[in-house]
Each structure stands twice: as C-alpha cells, then as structure tokens.
Amino acid sequence: MRRAKWFRQLAVGAAAMCGLSLMGVAQAQQSETQENKEPLTIGYTVYAMSGWVSSGREGVDAVARANNVDLRWASADNSVASQVAQMNQFIAQGVDAIVVDPVDSAALGPQIKKARERDIPVIGTNVKVFDPGKQYLNSYVGPDDIAAGENQTRALIRKIGGKGNVVILQGPLGQSGTIDRTKGIENVLAEHPEVKVLAKRPGDWKREEGYNIMASWLSRYGEDIDGVISENDDMAVGAIRAMRQRRINDIPIVGIDGIEAGLQNVAAGHQLMSNLQNAPLQLGMALQVAVNAARGQEVPKEIFIGMPIVTQENAEQYYRQMYKNREQFLDELPELIRRNLASGDYGNQQ
Amino acid sequence: MSTAHTENAASTRSTKAIGAIFNRTRLASLVVWIAFACYVVPLAIVEPQFISFYNIISILMLISVYALIGFGEGVVVLSGGIDLSVGSVVGLAGVVAALILDGHSGLGWALMAILGGVAAGIVIGTFNGIAVALLNIPAFVATLGTLSIALGCGYVLSNGQQISINNMEFLDISVYSWFGIPIPIYILFGVFFLLWLTLSRTRLGRYVYAVGGNIQAAFVAGLPIRRVLISAFMISGALSGLAGVLLASQITAGIATTGTGYELIAIAAPVIGGISLAGGRGSIAGALFGVILLGTIDNGLTILNVSPFYQHIISGFIIILAVFLDTVASRRKLV
Amino acid sequence: MSDISQTASGEQSRKGRGSFDLGRMLLEGRAFFALIAIIIIFSILSPVYFTTNNMLTMSSHVAIFGLLSLGMLLVILTGGIDLSVGSTLGLSGMVAGFLMQGVTLESAGVTLYFPVWAVVILTCALGAFVGAINGILIAWFRVPAFVATLGMLYVARGAALLMTNGLTYNNLGGSPELGNTGFDWLGFNRLFGIPVGVLIFAAVAIVLIFVLNRTPFGRWIYSTGGNSRAAELSGVPVKRVQVLVYVLSGVCAAIAGLVLSSQLTSAGPTAGNTYELTAIAGVVIGGAALTGGRGNVRGTLLGAFVIGFLSDGLVIIGVSSYWQTVFMGAVIVLAVLLNSIQYRGRKKSAKPASGSGSASPQSGTTGG
C-alpha cells in the first residue's frame, strides 16, 4: 500500500515536470509561422523584464514575424552570471545572431568575443557596452541619452527663468543610461552657473523611490526647490505624487522615456516635458540590424536613436500613436524601422 | 577527567547521528534525482543540444559561481546558521580584486588579486562569525546587516563605477581550459571534494554537524561551539569571495552590485538538496545537487524558449515540488 | 527549545501579559532607545527632520514596510517565515489595477467596473488565497516554510508579470461616471491631516494587538511557536493556526499593495521586490525571535519605525547613497546587538555560560 502511494506521488511529480517542458515546446513552435524568407534563429537576452523592456518586446515580436525569425528570448533578471550563461547558451545553440541588452556595461566582453570567433554577429542595445566588449560588437543600437539629458535640463532652466534651485533624481549609479543622462544634465548646468543643484540621489528608475526621495526633499528644502530633473518618467511619476500629497502643484518637473503615465502627465500639465524613448522602435530596430548582419549585409557600427521632445502640445499625439492605436503602430513598425535604417533618421516616428 | 568522558560520548553520539543522516539523505536525494531525470530526459529528447558538451560546460560555468556560494551557505546552514551576506561579498570581492589589479599585469598580481578577493570574503565572514558566536546576534540579522555593509563597502571602494580588468592572466582563469574544460569547473569540483572531506572525515566536520544538530548537547559535551560557528562563517565568506573573483574574471570587471539577490539562490540550493534549515542534517553533495537543479531549470527553459514570465512560475513550482518529494521521502524513513 | 532561559522568559511574558513585565519593557526599550536616538541625532543635523509634516511623510513610508512586518510577525511567532510577502504585494497591486480598469466579460459583452470597496475585498481575498497556499503547503504537506514561500515568491512574481506581460497599470483613480472613484482613499489622501495609509497601518496594528493579547487564537500562535509538540498535545489546532497566520500575512501584504498603489496611483508588477528582507528585519529588530514564540506588535512597530526613520533621515541630511547602505547595515546589527547584550546579561545571572545558545536561528520546534 505504502509503496503504491509513494509511486503515485512520484508519478504525479514526473508528469508535472514533463507537462512543463512540453508547454515550453508548444510555445517555441508558435513563432515559426511565416515563410517569406529563409528562417533565422536569433537569441535576444535582456537585463530584466522591466516595464520598458516588456513594452519593447511587442515591437521585437513584430519585427521577428516580418523577417521570419525564430526568436529566442531570455531575461537575465539583473544577474550578470545568468546573462553570461545565456550568451554561452546561444553560442552553443549556434544561433544566427545575438542581440544583448546588458545587465552591465563592463561585463560580457569574453562572451561577445567568443561569439564573433564563431562568426555569430552580436548587436548591443539600450545599455552601452564598454571595452573590451565594444570592439567586437557588430553594431550598437541605443538611445541618445546625452542629448536627452541636455534637452530636459534646457527645458527646465528655460521654465524657471535661468536661475534657481534644482534637485536631480538619478538612475542606478554606474549604469550607462545614468552616466550619459547625468553627463547631458551637467553639460547644460555648466552653462548656467546661477542654477544651483540642492541635491541629487539615485532612485533606481523606480516610482516608489521617486516618491520617497521627493517626499524627503520636500521636508528638507520645501519651497526652495524651483525645479526637479528626473532621469526617467517612472521616478517623475512618483515625485509628482509626492508633491500632490503635500498639495504642491507649482514645481516644474522634467523626465525622459515617454512611458504611458509620463505622456499622460505631460498632456495634463503635471510634468513640463519628456523625451520619447520608443521601446518597440529601439529594441525592434536592434533585431532588424541583427537580421541584416546575419544575412551578411553591412550594418552601421553605432546607431543613436534621437528621442523626440514631448511637450504639452504634442503629448496627446504621441500618446495616441504609442498606446491608443498601439496595434496599428506595431503593424507598421517593421516598415518604419526599415525606412529609418535606410534614411539614417533613426528616431523618426512616422 | 569527566570532560574527556563527555567528549568521547558526544563524539560517538555524533558519529552515530551522522550515519543516520547519510542514510536518510541518500534516500531523499534519490527521489529528487529521479524527479530531476524526469525533467531532463524529455528535455534532452526534444532539444538534443541541451546535452551537448558545450551546453553542459555552459551550465557548469554558470553553476560554478552559484555552487561556490551554495557550498559556503551549506556549511553555515549545517552549523545551524544562515548567511545572507554572500551576494554582497561576491560583488565586494570582485571590486577588491579589480582594485588590486588596477592596470598591473603579470601572474603575480593576478594571484594577489585572487588572494585579495578571498581575503575580503574572509574578513566579512569573520565579522559574521564574531557577531553570531561571540555577540549572540541572530545569524539572520547579523548577516542581513553585513549584506548592506559589504554592498556599501563595494560602492564606496569602487565609487559606484565598474572597474575594468585588463590583467590577461587574471582574465584567463575563466577562459583557459584543460582538456576542453574551463578552470572554474576544476575549481568547483576541487572545492566540493575538499569540503566533502572536511565535513565527513575531520573533527571540524563532525563538530559542525553536532553544533547544528543540537547546540545544547554540543555545549554540554564541551565542543568549541564558538570556534565552530566562526569557522563555518569564514568558510562561507572565503567561498563567496572566490566566487566573486571567478565572476569578475568572467565578466572582466569588478562591480559592487554583481551578486545582488544571489543570497536566495545560495540558500535555496542546499535546502533543495536536502540540507535542513534547522541545521545538522544533510550533506554537501545535496548543495551541489540543488545548484545543478536550479542551473538546469534556467538553462532548459531558455533553450525551450519559454517566456521569462512563465520561467518564474515554473522555477517556483519545481523548487516546491523537489523539496516536497524530499520531505515525503525522509518522513517515510522516519516512520 | 534552543535555550532554557529564553523559553522561560517567553513563558513568563505569556503568563504575565496584561500585567507589568519589567524584563519585556527593558527589551523593547532597546529598540525604543534606538528610535529616540535616531530622532535626536537627525533633528540636530537637520532642523526640518522633527516637524509634523516630515514625521507624517516618513510614517506613510513606514506604513508599507510596517504592514508587511506585522503579517510577518504572526508567521515568525509560530516559528515560520514568509518570503513571499514582497511578491504578494506586487501581485495584489496588479490585481487591484486590473479590477479598477474594468473587467470585460467576452460572453456577455459587457465591462464590469467594480466599486473601490469591492476591489479592496477581492484584493484582500487574493492575498488570503496566496497565504492559504503557503500555509497548506507548510502545515499539511510539511514543506519547509523557507522553501514553500521562496517558491511562492517566484510564482506570485511570475503571475504578476504575466497579467500585463510586464506592463504597469496607470491611473487607478477611477472616474465618477463609472462610480469607482475613491482609490486615493486607500493610502494617498489625508484624513484629519494624516495620510490614510498611516491610519490603516495603525488600525491593523491595534487589531493585531487585540488578537494576540485577548483571544484564544493569539495564545495558540504563541504556544505553536514556543513548542508545537506540546501545543498539539494540549489541544491547540496547530495546523489550522499555521495556515491562518500565513493567510493573515498574505492579507497584510495585499493591504500594503493597495496602500502603495494608491500612493502612486499605479501598479507595477515588480513592486515590492526584495521587501521581504526589510519586513523580516523590522520584526527581528523589534525583539522577536526567529525560533518563534517570542515577540510582540509594539516591538515590531518600533522596528519598522527604526528602519524607515533612519533611511529617510539619511536622505534628508543628504548622506551619499553609498554610505547609506553601510549605515543601514550597521544600525540593524547595532540595534539587535543591544537586544542580545540585554539577553546575555540576564542569562548570566540566571544560568552562567549558556552563551551561544541563542546565537543561531534554529527552528528546533518546527516539528518537521
């Protein structure tokens, strides 16, 4: 009797695990539908499934469908070791190309080198890759973070009349996005010595951190704060909530990314401006460049996608394009990416 | 006079206990191994590349980092404690190694960097051990504190930046292979063998089991409880430091945040492999098994191209299921 | 079971509940003094620290962690641990967001908009459900608490991510036409000048104080954690108690998820990541033992406030965030070190040299 029970439990466990592995197989086969071109297998590893990456994933899927790509998607969950393993795995699988959105700019050098030694093109995206990995990249497709930092700072300084006190919410220290956006902010601040930075602090791109840090700053500096520079929209969303909790509505705040909530805040006048970092466009373009490289075409070494400035006038329009009519935007995305790559105006949204 | 007597009695008792432990773990891990096979075999049939030499090496390379911290954690858990600081130590050790290298080339500096990274781990481990054994701070809190402290030290030392490593000898650690097998894998099995010997064949090993199994009895028997606890934490610190050095070599940089979140993997691995969180029960082979299971889940799901969202859910279920089977098995043995 | 004098003091405090227990007062005093010291030091460093407005701001930050800590306290009192609270917080926020956006029924072709009170009840029910799975796995299937809740950590996070494929729900404010406004009242708005989140936190704390001190269930929780075998023999429904504490912990996490989503008027699937360690730290700083059976709500409240007031204080005086991590760690260790010294002193007088007894978090009484 006991033995029978023991075996039954084991069988249930085994069945569950087999079921799980089969589930994966079913999914893997779904993506092999189109037949217009010879099929390619491309590995795509991202640092984590953040909201921004998840939104970009839809664009990547659209480009994959249009190019008959069997997409192998992996998330490293912010662990460098996992991403190293995923790179190795893609190399072991012999994929036709690899796209990597790195956990860390300085890591992955040896893996990129190894992939190139096996003639697998590697495309970096979103987070810059530093040397020694950089020299082996076929191409880097990423945002123009320095320009975005400059744009937001310029807009804020214009709004506060060229002088006053500002606070800065930064991304996680050491990340290329933070480094470049901070560089852009500092470039403009250097031209305006009358603008004083009261405090700056990393909020790690998170809404709740933006909320907590801004609440503390409001306690410390109160009405002395004339403006807030947030290096992304998520932290700005949190900071705006913290200000509203204190019934403060007159401190201008600027952001970057143009996420859904950010565009809505700009349209409603809660946020002065943002810079649209179009996730489906950028991550999709990285895949298109990988496809081109895998098919033996020449690809540009660096592609910096400009971020269009979002103001109250055009926020509604971008919101409609990106979110309300998202299906249509995604349907047209592969064509838009091909046009942009041909023209060199990479940030073009129409 | 009476001390010698009690020590003798205690060691007989602990030897007996260890025998029982090994019997139980063997059966328990057998069940989990079967379950593991049920997952791997279909996977290997559907995706043959899963068991390709290169992929197995790639799994072992990923595991080498997790396994080292898992082993250290295993020793601490066997002694009845817990060490949450391992992930931060991985980052700190990488930063220390990178700072020592700082543009220097040559094998001598590479060795210095390795020693420096391991030493940083030992310092944190000793600190943990003293806090737990001498100052009576619960291990969970003491090591939660050092989790923050070690991470902060890594930040302060590196100024929040990635420190690139250019020393070729140091970078070769993770690239160079003997007979097609990269060095970290030799290190992994070397450390495993050493720990296995230490735990099963030395007095320190017996003491670790005795202290973890029943601290009151160990105290009555006059075992050097404090020294045992401090040693366990030092081993954990040293191995986390070594893992940090290996990882820094793999990613060619020292970065303070590299090991963030590894503590949960480090604890899950020995527990999945049958080491009881209550201490004193289980074997280091269990920790190795736990890490292999976790590594193959991740690798297999990526090969199968399962959405990362499902990956979370499936990993969670497999962890629970593996340990559930293990407890079912060990309970039967107890009855 | 690890230490005789410890168990004895736990016994004593259980018996002496309601009356005035000097030992317990002193123990809690340590966390209390740590909190006072933090407030004094930061007030000297920055004049704005000790203002009503800042205190309220910091308290609403504390409320989120504090709610998790309160649920965690119940679990830890029974000798268990719940690592899934952070993920449950995230999942609850997502479910609230999902319900607030309106649920479209394909078959009927209508979209249902739930009033806020219904959203609250459904979200809490979800938290209870997640907790119930934890509890059943632990009590009936004897999976170690650490593993069961670690697995649930991954499962709940994955489920939260799957709901929107990783995207964030925005604008949980609702609209007057649909009759589902009022989400701001769950944590963001102020009542008598106090953020609602803080009031909810206080209410939950008061309920738990009552439950732990005045009901049979409270006694059962303490006796389950003190010695589960003995508790079982004396007629305590140990398994039911274990399931219930995880259910309550899940509900607390769901409430925290609602408060956080209300503060941000949005819900993201990664919210609450790694909050579990902070929640546990709050409980332990408050004097509870991870072995179970010892600890109380007042201590946990103090622990939560120590952590929250310290981290916000460091932001206010502008300490670099690198050093902030170092300070946080040092203070956690120090606060508990004070507790341990207290214990060692008492143990030495009671029974010499059982020094390292309380050193390691052994759960010798989990009965597994």
Automatic annotation (TrEMBL), chain A:
The keyword Signal applies. It comes from Kushneria sinocarnis. Residues 1-28 form the signal peptide. Its main location: other. It holds the Pfam family Peripla_BP_4. This is Monosaccharide ABC transporter substrate-binding protein (CUT2 family). The keyword Cell membrane does not apply. Keywords: Signal. GO terms for cellular component: cell envelope.
UniProtKB/TrEMBL annotation, chain B:
Keywords: Cell membrane, Membrane, Transmembrane, Transmembrane helix. It is a multi-pass membrane protein. InterPro entries: ABC_transp_permease. One of its GO terms (cellular component) is plasma membrane. The keyword GTP-binding does not apply. GO terms for molecular function: transmembrane transporter activity. Pfam families: BPD_transp_2. It is found in: Cell inner membrane. The chain crosses the membrane at residues 27-45, 51-69, 76-101, 107-127, 134-157, 177-197, 229-252, 264-297, 309-329. The keyword Repressor does not apply. Belongs to the binding-protein-dependent transport system permease family. AraH/RbsC subfamily. This is Ribose transport system permease protein/putative xylitol transport system permease protein. It comes from Kushneria sinocarnis.
Automatic annotation (TrEMBL), chain C:
Its main location: membrane. The chain crosses the membrane at residues 31-50, 62-81, 116-141, 192-212, 243-262, 274-292, 299-317, 323-341. The keyword Cell membrane applies. Belongs to the binding-protein-dependent transport system permease family. AraH/RbsC subfamily. Pfam families: BPD_transp_2. This is Monosaccharide ABC transporter membrane protein (CUT2 family). Keywords: Cell inner membrane, Cell membrane, Membrane, Transmembrane, Transmembrane helix, Transport.
